Amino acid sequence: MIDFWETVLAGGVRLAVPLGLAATGELLGERTGVLNLGVEGIMAMGAIGGVLGAASLGTTGGLMVGMLVGAAVGLLFSLLTVRLGADELICGFAVALGGSGLAIFLSRTAFDSAPDIVPFAAVEVPGLSSLPIVGPALFDQPWVIWLLPLAVVIVSLVFTRTRLGLALRSAGEGPDAARARGIDVDRHRIGASVAAGALAGLGGAVLCVGLVGEFSDTIIGGRGFVALALVIAARWRPGLLLPAVLGVGSLQALQLRVQATGWGGVPVELLQALPYLVTLLVLALGVGAAHAPRALGQLTKERGA
């Protein structure tokens, strides 16, 4: 039984990384008042960008390409919504659908056969990897799993310890007051959207290049929309986001492990839906909804004013 839960926890950590990177980026953007519903499409574009990059630059190069592709999509979204005043909901859905469709198109036209991509191997930390349960989960994993806590810590420190973080939070809580104090709200929102896109693109690249080693039409599998929900569940606080994504990642790993072992005769379809059902339950209960930044989703109204 210990082996079972060690496998679940280790798999949960790996599965949480792509989801958590995308959610951390979305949290960053939303704290400035920009709602981007296109996380799914940005992850897909980052994933195919990572695969294309890895085919010629290696696995690490693929991660960098995926991050750059995500940043470019985030820049495009922010220019359309923040600078040109396009509706952020419409643009978000366009990015989600268009990015996913374009990624599938590129995957089918760019390669005659799947490229040979070697994902990152596990790095065993002597002594610590032999600890029960937490050892395999944290200290016998590919190095990319540490990108998630690194991103969460950096975003948290920026928000709480820097003047930049104060300006970013001001853009999301009181943009008019921020402008009155001389803060360039639009510039900070665009910068945050670019960083958010980079993290979402990196998440897609980590999944396809760093962990799996291939791209498929369904590999993102709704992770972008789950990331949006987890930002709400975490009350837009980076410190709460990390346990939330680890919980969802562990549920995904649990259903995969139960399917593999046939444990309990639970229907496969119910197991596959479990992480998404839990996410929907969190949203239905309104967890965290009262803590949204005041200017979130108000870009169109601000332009109209």
How would you describe this protein?
The chain contains twelve helices and two strands. It is globular. The protein has 305 residues and is mainly α. The chain has one domain (2-304): ABC transporter involved in vitamin B12 uptake, BtuC (Orthogonal Bundle), CATH 1.10.3470. It has a two-stranded antiparallel ribbon with strand order 1-2. Helix 2 (39-83) packs across helix 3 (88-110), helix 6 (163-173) crosses helix 8 and helix 9 packs parallel to helix 11.
State the gist of this model.
This protein has 305 residues and is mainly α. It contains twelve helices and two strands. It is globular and about 60 Å long.
* Average pLDDT level: 88
Q: Please indicate the count of domains.
A: 1
As a percent range, the share of strand residues is under 5%
- Proportion in helices: over 70%
CATH class: Mainly Alpha
Number of helical elements: 12
Output the strand order for the largest sheet.
1-2
Order of helices and strands: HHHEHEHHHHHHHH
Biggest beta sheet attributes? 2 strands, antiparallel
